[in-house]
Design goal:
The chain is built from eleven helices and twelve strands.
Length: 301
């Protein structure tokens, strides 16, 4: 059996209108084209669904039984089309995002809140992770996109640049270096420096060596979380460095930020997704919004 949607709509329209003429007008068809569709439907079913007379058209006994099923099919199809349209127009949807813990508590909440003002029916769920676990969340299918500092990524992931962020000195408000607008890395030599992540010095040292052969920095502590480093700075244990987008958290700890120069240490932040999948409408709109947000307000300060 090969029933078509046009045949079902033709039958329902005639049944509702009680007239081929009126049904044809509603469907923007000629009466003869409408009659052909109904005849094709009856031929496929092997039974008449409409009783015709010179004065009126009404449902046959079989047609009365068949009509509720047709209405259900047409209604459910209409709901499905509306749902797809809402997804396409970003009126609703579900988006899962992964981000490392520092970004998840600084940049991402501000972006998600602002995005929600424009697309209140798109549900955004944020997964905060260890930095080394962020991309694995996307690979496992538990998030559609990840926003994270650039680094080695599996070939199954696509990388889209988002921003190039610089690092700042973090110190207590009464520290002598707060009198400067910019602080050179060599001015930190001899200070108690706290590396904010385990791989920080590995990434930083090539930039220091390129700036000066004798420029080295030996941390007194290497921690796993920026919050630990900030807590230690707040307690007077030492100094640390943090990206621009950490500014809200730095302020919450009552600490100061000063730009670090000579060299300026940058790290790219990217959007990662499965290379084999296209963005959902919600993800596409979020990524576009994220770019506008970063371009318009900067990453943090």
């Amino acid at each position: 059996m090969n029933l078509t949607l046009r045949q079902l709509r033709a039958f329902a329209a005639v049944a509702d209108a009680g007239s081929f003429t009126e049904a044809a007008r509603q469907l923007h068809l000629t009466q003869s084209a409408l009659s052909v569709l109904v005849r094709e439907l009856e031929r496929e079913l092997g039974v008449r669904v409409l009783d015709r007379s010179t004065r009126r058209v009404q449902l046959s006994d079989t047609g009365r039984d068949f009509y509720p099923y047709v209405q259900r099919v047409l209604n459910e199809l209409g709901d499905a089309v509306t749902s797809v349209g809402n997804l396409r127009d970003k009126k609703k949807g579900l988006l899962r995002i992964a981000a490392p813990q520092l970004m998840a508590c600084t940049l991402m909440p501000r972006v998600i809140a602002a995005y929600g003002q424009l697309f209140p029916d798109v549900e955004v769920r944020l997964t905060d992770t260890l930095p080394e676990r962020t991309l694995a969340v996307v690979l496992a299918g538990d998030a559609e996109i990840a926003v994270a500092p650039d680094g080695a990524a599996a070939p199954e992931l696509a990388r889209r640049p988002l921003l190039r962020d610089r690092h700042w000195l973090i110190c207590q408000p009464d520290h002598a270096l707060t009198r400067k607008k910019k602080v050179r890395w060599k001015e930190l030599q001899g200070s108690a420096f706290i590396a904010p992540t385990r791989d920080f010095m590995q990434r930083l040292q090539p930039a220091l060596s390129a700036a000066a052969k004798d420029l080295t920095l030996t941390p007194v502590h290497e921690v796993s979380f920026m919050t630990t480093a900030l807590g230690m700075v707040a307690a007077g244990i030492g100094l640390t460095a943090a990206p621009s987008y950490s500014a809200p958290l730095v302020r919450a700890y009552g600490l100061e930020m000063r730009l670090l120069v000579e060299p300026q240490f940058y790290r790219d932040v990217c959007i990662f997704s499965a290379a084999s999948k296209t963005f959902s409408p919600a993800a596409q709109s979020f990524v576009e919004f994220l770019h506008r947000f970063v371009d318009g307000k900067g990453a943090g300060r």
